[in-house]
Amino acid sequence: MDRSNQSYRNRILQLLNPADFDRLRSHLEAVQFEYRQSLYDANRDITFVYFPIEGVASLVITLENGSGVEVGTIGNEGVVGLPILLFDRLAPTNAYIQVPGTGLRLRADVLRKELEINSRMRTVMLHYAHALFNQVAQSAACAHLHSVEQRCCRWLLMTHDRVQSDQFLLTQEFLGMMLGVRRTSVTEVANKLKRRKLIEYVRGRVTILDRSGLQELACECYSVSKQEFDRLLGYPLGPQRG
């Protein structure tokens, strides 16, 4: 299959049949993702879906007391706007940018119409939905069974995969939300990783110094989720990290 004219910057788009991608191409709009930018709000119509290229989006449940809990993250392996893939238009979560970057935006109604008539595209999108569900399920188990340090290393590895850079923005607020811990715990874990020379962390910006060291400390949930995405979506094109 010739994909020479196709975008390889987002894994979902690279999986589409070239003819299917061409039908979407004219509707795709390049966007810059800013820190904390809202992509859609809970229980409101989703009007756009987003295909990240660099950066990470968070799916967050907000409780009655105003506190937020991250239940999922999406990077260049996927698409923000899962309900549209499932022929719905609402979600109980808010979606906003956790790590700034770039991406492509598509009107939800355009994608919905394509999915109604195109079984090949629908299969790709449903495989992604399955992979994301499995990631969320794995994360739930991880939160109950593994240490804060293990989960932090897992999150750093996942973000490293998605931003395609050794350095990225990471505030203590977001890391605490993802791990479900207080900032003091985030500071403690970050300092441990710094002392081991696995990362550098200055003014909310992380630099990965030793990826293999992070993998040794991370729980198995990182590799389990990665293998499941590869099983359902195939191996991504471009540089691979171990």
What is the number of helical segments per DSSP (H or I, 4+ residues)? 10
CATH class of the largest domain: Mainly Beta
Number of domains: 2
Strand content: 15-25%
Overall 3D form: globular
Mean model confidence by pLDDT = 88
Compressed to H and E, one letter per element, the order equals HHEEEEHEHHHEHHEEHH
The CATH superfamily title of the largest domain: Jelly Rolls
Determine the CATH topology of the largest domain: Jelly Rolls
Question: How far from one another are the termini?
Answer: 27 Å
Summarize the structure.
The protein has 242 residues and is an alpha+beta fold. It folds into two domains: 133 residues, Jelly Rolls (Sandwich), CATH 2.60.120.10; 72 residues, Arc Repressor Mutant, subunit A (Orthogonal Bundle), CATH 1.10.10.10.
